[in-house]
Every structure is written in C-alpha cells, then in structure tokens.
Amino acid sequence: MILNTTHSNTEHKEIIADLVGSSFSLVQKLTMNGVDSKRMIIDKVSPNLQSIMNVVSDNNYGYIELRPKGILIRINKRLKKFTWVIPYYHLVIYKINGSSIHAQGKFVHFRADKTFKENKTFFDKLIDEKVKYDMLYAMPQEL
Predict the structure, then answer these.
(1) Distances, alpha carbon 26 to alpha carbons 46, 49, 83, 119, in Å
(2) What is the bridge-based pairing of β-strands 92-94 and 40-45?
C-alpha cells in the first residue's frame, strides 16, 4: 500500500500501525543500533510505482524504516513524501547489483554505490528481523 505522507494524517498512522505495527520505542531503537537506513539512490522501480518518481533526470532517493511487523520505504518526489507499507509476509529481497525489494506486485531497486555499502549492516538487521518474524509463524515440522 502506498500512502501520500507529506502531511501528518491520523488515518494514515492508523493504517501503518495496523499493517506493520507502531514504531519501536526509544529503548528498542537504541538496543537495535537504529531502525532507519541511510538515504539510498533508487535505480529502477516497477511501472506501477513510476508515478511517484521524479520525471526529470534527477536522482530519486529513498530510505527504509524497520517496524515490528514490516518495513516502510519512504520516497521523496520534489516536496511530496510517499510511504510504501510492506508487511514482512509480503517482503522479498534480492541482492543483485545492489538490492531489490519486491512486494505486492511492485519493486524498488537500490543502486550499489557508496551509501548502499554503508547500509550493509542495516540490510543484515532487516533480514534478521524478517527471519524472526517468519519463525513466529512457521509451520511445525513433521518427524
């Protein structure tokens, strides 16, 4: 689900909290060493996300925020801010020449550059959180 979060809206906050949970507490953020990625350059997006990208040849930037039950990908288009809400059960990550995040029939590909390399620990943390979430709802194995 993509929301226009340029202005604060209680309805959007409720939708985000329902889908991916409310943000982590300050203590949790400190123990996790942060829950936000650094700003990364968006290389490509799926055709159904093209409308929220800058049309001119400017670089498009985005960053990822961890939530208890999913992630938020925040994208800036001029003065507008858009948030793509992705629950962990929809999230698929590919690491091919950068990182590509797929969910809900859409994708965002982040360029492999200096800022992407600085986010390596963040992506490790993201994968760990997804695995923890998946283990909560794993089917029991038969012996």
Answers:
(1) 34, 32, 22, 21
(2) unpaired
| Residue 141 domain flag | no
CB atoms within 10 A of CB 111: 17
| Domain presence at residue 129 | yes
List the domain range (segments joined by +) for residue 132: 2-136
Backbone angles phi, psi at 141, to 5 degrees: -85, 135
Task: Take residue 41 and report the two structure tokens written for it.
Answer: 């350059």
d(CA 50, CA 31): 36
CATH number for the domain spanning 19: value is 2.30.29.30
- The enclosing H or E element of 26 equals helix 26-31
Q: Is the pLDDT of residue 57 over 70?
A: no
> What SS3 state is found at 8?
coil
pLDDT tens-digit series, residues 107-120: 999 988 887 788 88
Whether 59 is in a domain gets the answer yes
The number of domains in the chain is 1
Assess contact for 121 and 32: CB atoms under 8 A. no
Q: What is the pTM of this model?
A: 0.88
